[in-house]
Structures are given as structure tokens and as C-alpha cells.
Write a structure and sequence with these properties.
- GO terms for molecular function: aldehyde dehydrogenase (NAD+) activity.
- The structure is a single chain.
- The protein starts with 9 loop residues before the first strand and ends with a strand.
- A 7-stranded mixed β-sheet has the order 14-17-18-13-12-20-21, with helices on both faces. Strands 9-8-7-10-11 form a 5-stranded parallel β-sheet, with helices on both faces. Strands 1-5-4 form a 3-stranded mixed β-sheet.
- Helix 1 packs across helix 7, helix 3 packs across helix 4 and helix 4 packs parallel to helix 5.
- The chain is α/β, with parallel strands linked by helices.
- It folds into 2 domains: 273 residues, Aldehyde Dehydrogenase, Chain A, domain 1, CATH 3.40.605; 185 residues, Aldehyde Dehydrogenase, Chain A, domain 2 (3-Layer(aba) Sandwich), CATH 3.40.309.10.
- The mean pLDDT is 97.
- The chain contains 15 helices and 23 strands.
- Bound molecules: NADPH dihydro-nicotinamide-adenine-dinucleotide phosphate (NDP) and 2-oxoglutaric acid.
- The site of 2-oxoglutaric acid (AKG) has 10 residues, from loops.
Length: 489
Amino acid sequence: MAKFTQTVEVFQNYINGEWKDSTSGQVMDSVNPANKTETIGQLQSSTTEEVDEAIQSATEAKIGWRKTGAYQRGQLLASVANELEKNVDDIAETLTKEMGKTLPEAIGETQRGIAILRYYAAEGMRKEGEVIPASDKEALMFTKRTPLGVVGIITPWNFPVAIPIWKIAPALVYGNTVVFKPASESAVTAAKVVKCFEHAGLPKGVLNFITGKGSIVGEALINSKKLNGITFTGSESTGKRVAKAASANGIKYQLEMGGKNPVIVLDDADVQSAVQGILSGAFKSTGQKCTATSRVIVQEGIYEELKAALLAETKKITIGDGMNSSIWMGPCASESQLNTVLEYIQIGQEEGATLLYGGQRLTENEYAHGFYVEPAIFEQVTSTMRIAQEEIFGPVIALLKVKTVEEAIDIANDTEFGLSASLYTSNIGSALSFIDDIEAGLVRVNSESAGVELQAPFGGMKASSTGTREQGEAAKEFYTAIKTVLIRS
Ligand SMILES: NC(=O)C1=CN([C@@H]2O[C@H](COP(=O)(O)OP(=O)(O)OC[C@H]3O[C@@H](n4cnc5c(N)ncnc54)[C@H](OP(=O)(O)O)[C@@H]3O)[C@@H](O)[C@H]2O)C=CC1
Ligand SMILES: O=C(O)CCC(=O)C(=O)O
């Protein structure tokens, strides 16, 4: 019988306008979390010298790109959007196969990428400064935005299309050149996104793409003295390394890290609407969003009703390969992510919380080769427990019962994180208190904790971010510096 051999595509680095193999001669496999026997592609295991080469290429391109002008840079982003639109199906399928989220979610994310590109394409036509009255009436005084120069971009695996684009698009339109290092676990999808920039005709050196281990390629990038700025989304521990290196090198940095996002449900809430928001916020993308719901804080009068409705709906969730249209929740993105989730489910039980539902690893039949876990709901959780304090990044909810809205907000604020928070109520007074008192960068009323609008500022408080904001017009604050100009004739 003839042996079947799987052909695996190899993806290269993109440096100075050329796709190149790494001189290491080594590649890394990217596997399908729904079926670990399937390799989605191979990526270059790059060296620190290649990081220097990518930075050098971006440095050589920076003056030409700045002088290209904002309008023309925006037009190029519009062309990238068109390229991405032509490739939606392939990129979304790759995303699902590489990272595990369901195909409708992957299509939604890719379409979000197109919309982000179009938003920043239009930025190329918006004002880049303001005229301010000078004390000298003969003088003209105005501000003018100027790019930082070369920006390093390090992204996570959970949004391999949207996050790179919401960093690369504003970086480019405001005139910076880029060295982009994606997460290894979703770098095939990222490579396909970079090809859209290439096919749109981006000048060489403006966007450089380099893959390899975070501990080698990521470290070399964050420690480079030649960058002018660095933006990072991922874990708190890596974020702290980025901050330390950037401070030591005196460069501007921006970090988006974890969350422990609460949803508060008050006695006067619409239970069905709250349950739908909790399900979507906690379990879509298998809970692997920094904005995912992980704590559900419920007022005692509605607790039993909400718990029963939540359990009933959670039991209906279909788990499996995200390419299958009947599936609502895919696998965890990697074996290590699955192990983290299982570990926290164990920790929750050891801490004395009651596992009400789920939390079992699935290994039989169609689950045999994937990283599957059932959604888990805990109750009898107290705020000091690790499952109520630490980011799990998986489909796990902790239910906490409270007496009053004040107690609910105190518990919601009782973590080191402050990314997103949501309240379900029909009382405008409670909503207004929540908006004022909650420590979170994204504040939602009668709406789920996850979900980000590309035209609005995105970012957290406390340990969730550096306080800077991404997306919308807010991105301009990170990717540019202001020159204040005064002219006298
Ligand atoms: N959006 C968010 O807020 C995210 C939060 N997380 C949280 O982080 C946890 C761990 O996920 P993980 O993927 O390990 O997150 P990491 O922070 O390790 O990865 C994020 C990015 O940083 C890179 N990286 C890793 N180590 C270094 C380093 N020393 N210097 C520079 N860059 C580095 C990674 O590269 P490589 O992939 O090659 O290691 C990846 O591109 C999750 O369980 C979750 O809690 C994770 C992802 C997204
Ligand atoms: O909720 C979203 O759409 C974005 C979440 C996010 O930025 C993240 O998980 O890193």
C-alpha cells in the first residue's frame, strides 16, 4: 500500500521586501489544536542576527516612509484591506485550524481586520495637528504629529488577525516602519496577513516579519537599542520584561495584558439577557480573550434563577472542531493552555469551591487528538481564591453571591486587573454608580464583557495595561510624538 505523506507548507521571514529562510536552517511546526496530528505549516526558527537585520531594514526604510505622506500611506492600507477581503476564506480557515476558534468567529475576526485597515486608511486624510494662538500675534503656532520611527510589535495567539492589524495599521499610517514578531502558535495565519501587505505594494523594509521563539526572537527585539517604540499584547510576565527593557533603552512602550473580568447581575436584571451575555463573554473563543468573563457576581435575590438558567444554557454548548458548523466552542489553542485550564479547575476544587458543572478533559472518539475541555462553572467561590484572582484564559466561570450593588462593585474591583467589567440591571442609578466606581478600562452595561469596537479606545487599568489606549483615534497617542512649531516671518 502506498504511504500517504502530508505536504506541509513552509513560511519564511519577510525582511526588506523579501521572503527568506532563516540561516538557522531550523523550522517550528504549527499544529491544529483540534487535531494535533495535523501540521498547519512550518515557520522559521530565526536567530538574533536576523532580528537585527529586520530592524536594520526598518531603519533604512523609515525616512522614505515618513516622507511618503499620510494620504498615500492611507491609500496603501486601503489596498491591504482589499487584499485581505480577497483572502477572507483562506485566512479565516487557517485561523480556525491553527488556533481553534470556530469558523464564524474566525471570519468575524478577519472581517474586523478589514474594517480596522479601512478605518486607519481614512486616518491618512484626517488632521495631524492643531493651530494654537501664540502670545506673539505675529507668530503662527501649531502642533504637528511625527512618527516614532521603528516600532517593534509582539502579538499573542488568541487574535492572530485582529491584534496584529490593530497595531500594524496605525503604526504604518502615522508613518512608522515595523518589525513584527507574531506568537509562534498562530504564526501561519500572521504570515498570510503579512502577504496581504506585500501584495498591496508596501515599499520594501516598511513591514518586516520575523518568526521564532519568544525567548530568542522576542527577547532580541525587546532588548534592541535601535527601536523607537514597542507595543505588546500577551501575558503579564512577558509584559513586565518588555517594560523593563524599554525603560532601560529609553523607548516608548505600550502593554496590553490580562484581565479577570467581572459581570455583575443585580436583582432587577433581565436574566435571559444576562445569561446570553455571560455565555458569549465567558465561553466564545473557549474563554481565551483578555476581555473574557471569568467572575459572575450575582445579587442574592436572583442568584438561584440565574444559576439555573446559566447551567441549562451551558449544557447545550456543542464542543468540537471549529471547522464543523454545528460546533459552538472549539478546543483550547494549545496543550499548554489546556493544561493551565485543567490545573485551575483542580486548584478551584482544592480551594473549596464547588464545581457545579463541566471542567472535564474530553479525550474519546472525535476528541482523541485535540485539546478539548468542557466549560466549567464553579460556585461557593470567595474573592480571595486563586480562581477568583488569577487569569485562567479558558472556559471557566466563578459564581460569587452578594447582598448589595456596593458589595458587588467592591468584589469586582478586588483584583490586580482592570480591563473590562459589565453590569446587568434595569436601574439607571445602579448603572451610574457602576460606571463611576468600577476600576476597568472597558465598562459595559447590559452587554457582555468581551467585544471591542475598533473606532473606540481599548485598554485597561491597573495591571491590565500601561494605561495607554489602542485602536480608534487613541492609537495616535502611542504611535506619534508631537512637535510644537512656532513660525515668525
Ligand atoms: N490578549 C491577552 O491579554 C493575552 C494574554 N495571555 C495570557 O498569557 C498566558 C500565557 O500565554 P503565552 O502565549 O505564553 O503568552 P506570552 O506573553 O508568552 O506570549 C505573547 C507573545 O510574547 C512572545 N514572547 C514570549 N516570551 C517572550 C520574551 N521573553 N520576550 C519577548 N517576547 C516574548 C510570544 O512569543 P512565542 O509565541 O514565540 O512564545 C508571543 O508572541 C495565557 O494563559 C494568558 O493568561 C496570552 C495571550 C494573550
Ligand atoms: O474582546 C475582544 O474582541 C478583544 C480581546 C483582546 O484584545 C484580547 O483578548 O487580547
